[in-house]
UniProtKB/TrEMBL annotation:
Residues 11-259 form the ABC transporter domain. SUPFAM superfamilies: P-loop containing nucleoside triphosphate hydrolases (SSF52540). GO terms for molecular function: ATP binding; ATP hydrolysis activity. It holds the Pfam family ABC_tran. This is ABC transporter ATP-binding protein. Transmembrane segments: none annotated.
Length: 271
């Protein structure tokens, strides 16, 4: 079978490279995401994790290499079409509409499913009404799933940071993704909030069957939720395996020692 078309492989990255001027941010990186797994990219600062992430969400075009998603060449898909393929993401620094409520943010997030023309909208046909009902149903389901009922009509600007992170997760889930990209889900969270985030990720995997690709620094979260971990250093793959295998890999500890980071527990300050 050709690359990325095996039924249990959702996404396959093959020999991905990206150069920014003189910096080879990602160098010949290959890996496969299996359906239903939580797969985490780790590595010291500047290792290339975010760049890989941005290549998959199509913010960047690789200098060479290919990404296949469900057999389709993702690197040929226009960036604005990625969400329609069932790929959703969260951002390290949270990207929500601050002056809209939680409910409104989720409804806006659902817009990826609306492909109707303006005249249809004006006529407000039965089909449009049914789509609206479906959207409402899905959004309310996600609010219940992530226990956000208490905040549904609160403006995002008035929410504690930890709740905003969950709202961002909800916004991504409201699009009904098959693949969820989480960019440092624990960044800015305290220990208790990070524990809650681990539970949400486990629930998303177990109850919704969504495949998760995550960039994360907090090794306690990584070990708790990841099926497999890929360690990067200086743009290259250093190790791939279970969390325990990767943490035991001598090159991984060395890479962290050579940086300002610490492989055992990395907690970033609240942005
Ligand atoms: N837009 C860009 N322009 C120029 N260089 C970049 C750009 N984005 C990343 N780089 C460089 O590419 C390399 C990899 O960066 P990247 O952000 O992917 O690392 P990272 O592993 O995500 O690090 P961190 O944990 O600090 O977020 C670094 O040397 C970085 O300075």
């Amino acid at each position: 079978m050709s690359l990325g078309t095996e039924p249990d492989i959702l996404l396959a990255a093959h020999a991905l490279s990206l150069r920014f001027g003189g910096v080879l941010a990602v160098n010949q990186v290959s890996f496969e995401l299996r359906r239903g797994e939580v797969f985490t990219l780790i590595g010291p600062n500047g290792a290339g994790k975010t760049t890989v992430f941005n290549l998959i969400s199509r913010i960047y075009q690789p200098s060479s290499g290919e990404i296949r998603y469900k057999g389709q060449v993702l690197t040929q898909v226009a960036p604005h079409r990625v969400a329609r393929l069932g790929i959703a993401r969260t951002f390290q620094n949270i990207e929500l509409f601050e002056h809209a409520t939680v409910l409104q943010n989720l409804l806006i997030g659902r817009h990826v499913h609306h492909r109707r023309s303006l005249w249809r909208e004006w006529l407000f046909t039965a089909r449009v009404r049914e789509a609206e009902r479906q959207t409402r149903r899905k959004v309310e389901e996600v609010i219940d799933f992530l226990d956000l009922q208490h905040y549904r009509d609160t403006l995002v600007a008035g929410l504690p940071y930890g709740v905003r992170k969950v709202v961002e997760l909800a916004r991504a889930l409201a699009t009904e993704p098959e693949l969820l990209l989480l960019d440092e889900p624990s960044s800015g969270l305290n220990v208790e909030e990070t524990g809650d985030m681990a539970f949400w990720i486990e629930d998303i995997q177990r109850d919704l069957g969504i495949t998760v690709l995550m960039v994360e620094h907090d090794m306690s979260l990584v070990s708790k939720v990841s099926d497999r971990v890929l360690a990067m250093n200086q743009g290259e793959v250093l190790a791939l395996g279970t969390p325990a295998e990767v943490q035991a890999h001598p090159g991984v500890a060395e890479a962290y020692l050579g940086s300002a980071d610490d492989a055992s527990s990395l907690r970033r300050p609240r942005p």
